[in-house]
Each structure stands twice: as C-alpha cells, then as structure tokens.
Amino acid sequence: MQVSPRRTTLATVAASAGVSVATVSKVLNGRSDVAPATRSLVQSLLRQHDYVAPSPRRAEATPSATIEVQFDTDLNAYSSEIIQGAVEAGAEVGVGVVVSIRKDTDRTAAWARDLVAAGRQALIAVTSELTSGQLAALSRARLPLVVIDPLNLPRARVTSVGSTNFAGGLAATHHLLSLGHRRIAYIGGPATAACNQARLHGYRAAMESEGVPVPPGYVQTGHFRYPDGVAGGATLLDLPEAPTAIFAGSDETALGVIEAARARGLRIPEDLSLVGFDDTQIARMASPPLTTVRQPLREMGRVALRTAMRLAAGEQVDSHHVELATELVVRGSTAPASATSGGRPGHRGA
C-alpha cells in the first residue's frame, strides 16, 4: 500500500524561514507589509517545498471573489490607470475585478443589495460623491467600501485612498513662480471636491508665500475634463490682463487649455506655460509633452483593492485615509516668463 507524502503546511514553511505563520500567510495573500528580503525568502521556500494552497483548489465549484470598481462618469485616462492598478493587485491574490459606471441617480435603495446579490465582496468607488443614505445602505448590506479621491468628505468614517494633493498644488505653483511667472491662474474641478480644494489651497499657499496676489477671475472650476479646460482657458486668456501661466487640476483639463491657447494664436510654452495634474498617458503624448504633477494612480488602485480585501475579511485597517506621495514631472510645457508675455501675439484680450 502506497503512503501519500505529507502535504507541506504553512507552519512547515514558517519554521524553515524562521518567521511566523502569519507572515507566510501575508506573503501568500500579496500583503504589502512584509520586508522585501523576507518576502523573497518565503517565496523561495514555498517553491522549494512545493507548497499548494488547499482552499482555492477545492473551491473551484464556487464563484471566485470579486471586487467592483465603480465610477460615476465616463472613463478616461485617469480611470484606466486606476483600473490597471486594481486589476494587477487582484491578479496577485486571485480576486476578480468588475468595472462599472453608475450615475449618482442610479444608486437607489436597492443598489447595495444588488451588489451583494451579484457576489461582490467589496466596493471601490472612484471620485464619487456618496450621500449619507447610500453609505447607510452599504452598511446595512455589510458591504465594505473604499473610496478613491472622494468628492465629498462625509461625516461617517469612510475608508479612502488619495494622494498629497496640497503638496502637488504647492509644487506645481512654486515651479511656475521659480520660472519668473507672477500672473498664474488655476483651473480645477468641482469647487466642493476635496481633492480640488487641496490642490487649490496648495496653489494659493505658494502664491501667498511669494507675496503674489491672485487677481479676480484667476480661479476657474469645472469637472477635470477637456471641455472645462477649453472653456476655462478661454475665459482666462481673454482677460484684460491674462495669465502667463496656468496650473490645471488634471492632464485632461490642461489639454483643453492647449486648445484654447491654440485658437488664440498662442504657443506653449513660449507664450503660455502650463502645468497639469495626474501624469496620465496623455501628458506624455501631448504636444509639447506636459509638465505635470504625478499621482501614483496605479498604486492608488492597488492600495484600494488590498484595503477592500482586508475589510471584506473583517480585518482592521491601520488608517481610514491613505495619501500617497505626488511628484512634479517637468517636461516641455513650461518655460521662463518672457519679457513680452504681456503683449503676446494673437491675444485678443491684450
């Protein structure tokens, strides 16, 4: 009679590595809170011991875990980066990612129940404005929620992931100030959006630190979209004393500003310096390539998914709000303020 070899357990691998069973479990589940050297050692021992996780093999008849990543507006370059990060993180831990677009008006009383009925373990809402009623519906359905770049900050404790928007706005504006610009305008997103407010405060803080006033009309709001850049850029560039530089709250908005400038015979950056925000693919494809503030969008997607899975497993999270660092990326859309910037060719307002 043949005796089957004993199956390797987590305890076996943990003992070989000199770490706890919990640490081996974290490596298997793709958790980020494990030192790189320890992770490499554990992964090597898992392969060496031919470790096979029992539950996924035996549970093939049951549906795999799925997380829904939900947007409330059409997808764009920003959205694709978030999705890419969430999908990559999901693949690492065997979790499916479902992407949907659901307008605020579609989030009815049955919305949360429908998500649970569809087998979702958690919801990641991106740039959404959630009402207290919608939050209560998710709570009643026991569906964990993580919000990326929330548009509002509800009183309830909502787990969210964002970036250092204030620092990004500060860096973008200081860059333009360092180039000698003083007439610097801002075109952002919704006035009440938390991320927009942080970027705007960073812009204002940089201007105040240099003793540079912000003239009336130099702050425009919109929805972080291309048409907002076209409209806001036109408004700014038609002012009697138009800005020589614009900080746009998103790359897509910045591309709209480029079009508004082109329609007025203005060149980027010779006649107008421009900084975006996000560092999506369109920033690198713009002509000229766009100076922008890089948000780690893919990492935000990864962190949101890992956090959602922890909440779904009933675990505690270290913080209800995580901010990842931004970074200024200088490309070809910014240049020193020219001596003739006040009378630029083709400028109707000059």
TrEMBL record:
UniProt domain HTH lacI-type: residue ranges: 8-62
Region (Disordered): 331-350
Annotated CDD domains: HTH_LacI
Record GO terms (molecular function): DNA-binding transcription factor activity; transcription cis-regulatory region binding
The keyword Transcription appears for this protein: yes
Pfam families to which the protein is assigned, alphabetical: LacI, Peripla_BP_3
The entry's keywords: DNA-binding, Transcription, Transcription regulation
Alphabetical list of InterPro entries matching this protein: HTH_LacI (IPR000843), LacI/GalR-like_sensor (IPR046335), Lambda_DNA-bd_dom_sf (IPR010982), Peripla_BP_I (IPR028082)
Origin: domain of life: Bacteria
Name of the protein this chain belongs to: LacI family transcriptional regulator
Organism: Nonomuraea cavernae
